[in-house]
From TrEMBL:
Keywords: Membrane, Transmembrane, Transmembrane helix. The keyword Transmembrane applies. It comes from Saccharothrix algeriensis. The chain crosses the membrane at residues 73-100, 106-126, 138-157. The keyword Transferase does not apply. This is DUF4407 domain-containing protein.
Length: 242
């Protein structure tokens, strides 16, 4: 006689004529007896994160590694989310990353909780209804993935992005400087064949500068003549003093 037993992946046919595992010694072969002895430890906790009931899984122990790894993926996602949040907040605020550990842990808890719900809510759903549940959960997963990955990507490629931005700014400055020189030659002649809209510098032409230079040169020469006269007068006074 067989009985249908519900499990994480659906129903499992169990032969009730087989002996119960709890009535056998510990060294008895496992493959022929169901349910097997309960499993404990970290693996049980990881499976609990994804909504697995251990008393049902005891009837299909070969599924334990799969659900254990699935729970480990959820934990790893939470760890990456915590690191991502600490990096993002530290970048925005400018403080040390370790100050924001509580914020990262809170974000990791929220991500693990939501991720666990996304997986656990799919257990026991038949194929027809599962299609309607996959689409919204897939969209939520994509949003979470982008939220978690973006700060870490910026952290990893921070130096390359900074170098590219600096090189881009350097090219822009050099191009702007070159256009200013082309549109404002020293001779003061108007540029020919160039679109200099927004690049012309109005300094009143070169003549005012040349006139100011001539006046300054004349003042210099006058001051030098006066200095020479005073120097001669000083030498004459020194001879009289002797």
């Amino acid at each position: 006689m067989t009985t249908e037993v519900g499990g994480p992946r659906g129903s499992t046919a169990v032969d009730e004529r087989l002996p119960v595992r709890s009535s056998l010694p510990n060294d008895a072969p496992v493959g022929l007896y169901r349910p097997v002895a309960p499993a404990y430890g970290v693996g049980r906790w990881l499976r609990g994160l994804v909504g697995v009931k251990e008393d049902i899984l005891d009837w299909a122990p070969e599924e334990r590694p799969r659900y254990t790894k699935l729970g480990a993926i959820v934990v790893n996602t939470g760890i990456m989310a915590a690191l991502s949040m600490m990096v993002a907040v530290s970048t925005v605020s400018g403080g040390a990353w370790w100050i924001f550990v509580p914020v990262g842990l809170l974000w990791a808890y929220l991500i693990v909780t939501l991720d666990s719900w996304l997986i656990a809510s799919m257990h026991g759903v038949v194929h027809g209804a599962k299609a309607w549940l996959v689409v919204p959960r897939l969209l939520i997963s994509l949003v979470l993935g982008a939220t978690i990955a973006e700060p870490l990507v910026l952290l990893v490629f921070h130096q390359s992005v900074s170098n590219e931005i600096a090189e881009h700014r350097k090219r822009e400055v050099e191009g702007y400087e070159g256009r200013l020189k082309e549109c404002n030659p020293v001779t003061g002649a108007p540029p020919a064949g160039l679109d200099c809209a927004g690049y012309l510098v109005n300094v009143g032409g070169v003549r005012p500068l040349e006139q100011e230079l001539a006046e300054t040169t004349g003042l210099r020469d006058t001051a030098r003549t006066e200095l020479d006269g005073l120097q001669g007068r000083l030498e004459e006074l020194e001879r009289l003093a002797r």
